[in-house]
Design a protein that fits this description.
The complex is a heterotrimer.
Chain A lengths: L27 H22 L3 H27 L7 H18 L3 H24 L4 H20 L1 H4 L5 E2 L9 H28 L1 H11 L1 H6 L4 H27 L1 E2 L1 H4 L2 H14 L6 H20 L4 H16 L4 H12 L14 H10 L15
Antiparallel strand pairs in A: 1-2
Chain B lengths: L2 H32 L6 H19 L7 H19 L8 H24 L14 E4 L2 E4 H23 L1 H11 L1 H6 L4 H26 L7 H14 L5 H22 L1 H4 L1 H13 L9 H4 L1
Antiparallel strand pairs in B: 1-2
Helix pairs in contact in B: 1-5, 1-8, 1-9, 1-10, 2-4, 2-8, 2-9, 3-8, 5-6, 5-8, 6-8, 9-10, 9-12, 10-12
Chain C lengths: L1 H10 L1 E12 L2 E12 L3 E5 L6 H8 L7 E6 L2 E2 L5 H6 L2 E3 L12 H6 L7 H5 L5 H14 L14 H14 L4 E5 L7 H16 L3 E5 L3 H7 L2 E6 L2 E6 L1 H6 L1 H8 L2
Parallel strand pairs in C: 3-8, 3-9, 6-7, 7-8
Antiparallel strand pairs in C: 1-2, 1-4, 4-5, 9-10
Helix pairs in contact in C: 6-7
Classes of the chains: A mainly alpha, B mainly alpha, C alpha/beta.
Amino acid sequence: MPSASNPGPVITETIVVAPSAPVRPSWSKWVRITLLVVGAALVLAFPTIAPNPYILSAGVVILNYAVLSTGWNFMGGFTGYISLGHAAYFGLGAYGTALLIRNFALPSFLAWFVAALLVAIIAIPVGIAALRVRGASFVIVSIAFVLILLLVFQSWRDVTGGSEGLTVPRPFPDLLRPEHHRVFYYLFAALLAVALAVWWIIDRSKFGTALKSIREDEDKSQSLGVPTTQYKLIAYVLSAVFVSFGGGLYALWFGDLDPIFQFSILIGSYMVLMALLGGVRNLFGPLLGAVVVGSALEYFKLEFGDTQFHLIATGILLGVVVLFMPDGIIPAVKALFTRSSNQASIREVTAGELLEENRARSAETVPPRRPDASGEETP
Amino acid sequence: MSASLLLQAVILGVLLGGLYALLAAGLTLYFGIMRVVMIAHAAFLVLAAYLAWWINREMGIDPLLSLVVTVPLFFVIGVLIQRLLVSRLKPLTLTMMSVLLTFAVALVIEGGLGFLFTGTQRRIPLSYASDSLNLFGAQVPVVKLIAFGLAALSLALLFLLLKYTRFGQALRATIQHPEAARLVGINTDRVAGYGFGLGLATAAIGGTALSLDATIYPSLHWHWIGPLMAIIVVGGLGSIPGAAIAALVLGVAQSLLQLPMGPTWAQTVFYIALFLTLMFRPQGFFGGRLAKRF
Amino acid sequence: MNAQRDHGATAVDNLRTVDMTKTFGGVTAVDGASVQFQEGKVNGLIGPNGSGKTTFFNCVTGMIKPDSGSVLYRDKTITRQSPDRIARAGIGRSFQLCRVFPRMTVMENLLVAVRHTSIGRQLRSARDEEELERARGWLRRVGIDHLEHAEARNLSYGQQKLLELAGVLMGEPDTIMLDEPAGGVNPALIGRISTLVRELNAEGKTFIIVEHNMEMVMSLCDHVVVFDRGRPIAEGAPEIIQRDPRVLEAYLGV
């Protein structure tokens, strides 16, 4: 009888020299805690340090971006499904909040919650349709969804105010501008903290391990009993809800909505760019990306005003990240450190030791002093 | 609603559908060859329209003549994009990353157009812009007929090229089974590059056709990419005839719905079709088994 | 325990298909196959290349939906159920070209397996001590416990095969389907895998193995089903199968 005739992969029985335990210098834990504390302190102290209300408002915008891209990362980071249309949920959260306040006289923050709940309900059928087929169709639906919402919100004048936009009643009418920024700065920071905490809980949970296995090999994951369809949907809805919270808070803060901005593809692409730049596999990756890209964007707006230049810069930066460092800054820096400690062959996947260090480092540079974000590469 | 109005809507729908079909064929080529979802396709469409407008403004020649420049130019750009950018991506994450990469290209094009020509709406002044033909009582603008003729002719050429030439055979072999194609001696990298070039050439032709009777502005491509994406999904990702049929059907549907709903709402037909397709028939209506795998 | 298992074997089949058919655009890969696999045994599924074994495997485990026919696991239908439900029902499987999660560590690879989907369990830390110990147990069992912290993509092919097996075992399946466990690995490792299969079988696990390595099939299997052109043409004990003229004909294409 014939024996094996299937040309399998070449047999190479080289034994990998395995580390006996995750190599983590003894000082690393303390460094991480210190960095986390310093980072958090910096974030909290920023409104006091900020020289003027303009810088403070830029801080609010950056925190908003951080919330959005961390929210995006619930889907993109865990499952590897990249949505370019998450601006849809940003817009829905913002308009939902505004419309609930205006039309149903709900208290501002109740409206904010109800809007997020409604977004969750909308995200379910959209998620089911988008996740029916893998990869390509998901992206197509995500883009189509934001385009269709843009159409609807522009055209449905009676309800949404169309292109004229919509003003949102202020939740704290008595506050002066700087105070208003300061309050919202802390609200955004709190929201970000919640999002990060939830991401962290999922990251270390069994559910998170299952989601990450979907990113690696969906069929294999399913064959090991992971209910991939349901899990992807849960991640998608969670992601939509956090982005919606970000949008709703933006509406309450900014007080003025315009469909072109709220449902712009560009906002969605910022989320992707920020998360990717920082590192989608890392808790603080999207935050780091938001600080870098957000500061750059604010700086551009200040220096060059409203030109098309930010489009080009965003495009080039996105291209560079995708081509040369799809894992983001954090793993790149981490690899640098691991190499120096004689562990070049095997990269450890323990929780990011250098995240906080990085975050703290870039948090110090929050007032934008970087000349040009477009050409920036890994240090 | 009079019968002639209805007829006119159908004719205009078919004419528009022809243009959609050509562009969707280009998108299908990229996806078929390399599993690339080319978001920048519509941006190149708008770029071609801008080139036609610019050449017309600078030299005063008919925009159709700009094809002589734009088609070869876009072909080369397509080959370069494939060889220099897309082929660098890792196969495992190719589809997702190619979306981001081509999205980045689209942003650069949009930003570049805005930078060079500002956001002002542009339109080519044509002597025959308002001429129209009377077909069975329906008024059909000549420019739309020219655009359709151009699209139909290119689509026919593309079909003949794919069906009857050696290159077409190699391309189809690469689409159907890359490894097998390599084994029989086809240089799949080169074929993929040329396929990309061909796809982008359809954008050049489409853009010129578009420039004849459309007002153009840098962010116009977002209005095109959505419907085009919907068309290739409804047609069953990877199937050119499927995409062409879906394009015609949806083009006519859009045109008919414009009568009661107005142009903006009528556009939602694409997204509704997309949504329904994925819900009830994710492999598309006319396509093969390709879709399920991606 | 042994007696009970033997009793089970006579009472119900472990896995049974009835008239299962799957065609791919005109090519019939599985053609009305009705097959029984025995509870508590090491079942072999052999056949020439292209005889539909892998398609059969994929239909049974839900990766592909069969066009017609049904699949029964311990007399309950699992036809057209999703792969994850089938996995949680107790059928684990490996893939022909072994598949692991390349960018997860060996340990994380094992922690993926889901047996229960209750929310409480799913939100618990993946690294809970009990699970880690269980995982280390399986890693020791297949002999790659020293690689616990290595990323799966840095393992050799043979090690990946062992890792895949450990990952499947982590789901505590009652029935394990292996698609070419000996494919592409060296003789020493084949021996190791065979020993493992025997031990696990003695502990009560049923095996269904697709394999080209006849030596392994003949020494390991209690019961062999031969596939040709998408359907079974013979079945029985390995010694009998070996002498069956229909089997020789199918293989040699006389």
